[in-house]
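In the laboratory, one determines a bound structure by crystallizing the protein with its ligand and collecting diffraction data. In a computational setting the workflow is compressed into a single prediction: the sequence and the ligand go in, and a structural description comes out. We illustrate the idea with iron/sulfur cluster.
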Amino acid sequence: MSKIKVAELFYSLQGEGKYVGVPSVFLRTFGCNFTCSGFGMPKGDVSNERDGIAVNIGQFKSYNDLPLVHTGCDSYASWDPRLKHLSPVLTTDSIVESIKELLPNKHWKEEHLIITGGEPLLGWQRSFADLLSHEGMAGLKSITFETNGTQKLTDDFKKFLFQHGSKNKGNVEIVFSVSAKLSASGEKWEEAILPAVVADYEQYGEVYLKFVVDKDSDIEEVDRAVYVYRDNGIRGNIYLMPVGGTDQIYFSNFKAVAEMAMKRGWRYSPRLQVDIWRNAWGT
Ligand code: SF4
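The predicted complex, in structure-token form:
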């Protein structure tokens, strides 16, 4: 039986992108190939909030105890090895049972499934086929993989997506929400912008590109990235989303980001989880 190290499993509304406002089960896998200390913070800076949290790790017994951060990755606990004890390794059977408990009717109806991270397309791809073809997942109509767009799909997972995805032979809508990491995240362009990888996703589902924008200088880099993705044949919609792990940051820049999107004929994505729940864990 396959297993997945699960950082969070909860039921909420999708807060971002194409399915914003849709009731959804979120499966957050553990692990990421990036560390995104950035969004303005140099890597390894001792003032990094995440390092401060890790120093006091003993006092945090669960996700809900963890502080929100103002800079860097707002889902840091889903990949920081110092916090890995908060993410249990679960069998696909037990994940399906937990999902049933979360669904209002105890089985899938109109709800959406979001597989997120961390980076969910790391090694967990080998378990997704088992999970998604489990009899307890019958009735599921649509799935979004929230990815940073750097991980190639494995041959086995491609076969599964081909059989089950509505783009090919199946009837489940498969969506890849690609949130490419620009320099504000602290990651390197040549490691973060991999258009050939993302172009391959489009063979198996719908792809849209989502960019987190903070200030004017970010948008020039987004323009450059969009040019590169388009030049590689990627046709999916573009979303701009304001930076904002916390409401103070989010509410200070969302109008400017909306105007940047309008000016380019792109879509704007809110962060509904900040609007409604102030980005608390489990939302
Ligand atoms: S790629 Fe995403 S999950 Fe991974 S560290 Fe960066 S922001 Fe966090």
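The radius of gyration is 18 Å. Keep in mind that any predicted model is a hypothesis to be tested, not a measurement.
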